[in-house]
Structure formats: structure tokens, C-alpha cells
From TrEMBL:
Keyword annotations from UniProtKB, A to Z: Kinase, Transferase
Top-rank taxon, per record: Bacteria
Protein name: Kinase
Annotated organism of origin: Streptomyces alboflavus
InterPro entries given in the database record: P-loop_NTPase (IPR027417)
Any GO molecular function: kinase activity
Length: 57
């Protein structure tokens, strides 16, 4: 695409990284490390894994 698109974010080189994991499993720490190593051309999304509540009945 050569024309300017107001809905578009980033460039052709922008990478999307999705991290999933339980709460306090280190997603934010991994995201920080990736940002340090790979630079600013990233979109990092951290998604918690939500587990259903235990129902003993």
C-alpha cells in the first residue's frame, strides 16, 4: 500500500508479538527484554490466561 491510510499504525517492518500466560508469570518482563533487543518497531500485547474458578461440587 503506497497511499497514507489514517487507520494504519506502524510500518511494513512493525512486528506484532502476543504473550500469553498466567498472572505474575513474567509476561511484562519478557516484553521489556524483547523491546530492549528488538527496538521500538514492535507492538507487544500481553494477555493473561484466565482460568475458571474451581468448583468442588
Amino acid at each position: 500500500m503506497t497511499r497514507s491510510d489514517p487507520q494504519r499504525v506502524g510500518t511494513e517492518d512493525t512486528r506484532l508479538i502476543v504473550l500469553r500466560g498466567s498472572g505474575a508469570s513474567g509476561k511484562s518482563s519478557v516484553a521489556s527484554g524483547l523491546r530492549e533487543q528488538l527496538g521500538r518497531n514492535l507492538v507487544i500485547v500481553c494477555l493473561p490466561v484466565v482460568r475458571p474458578a474451581f468448583d468442588p461440587s
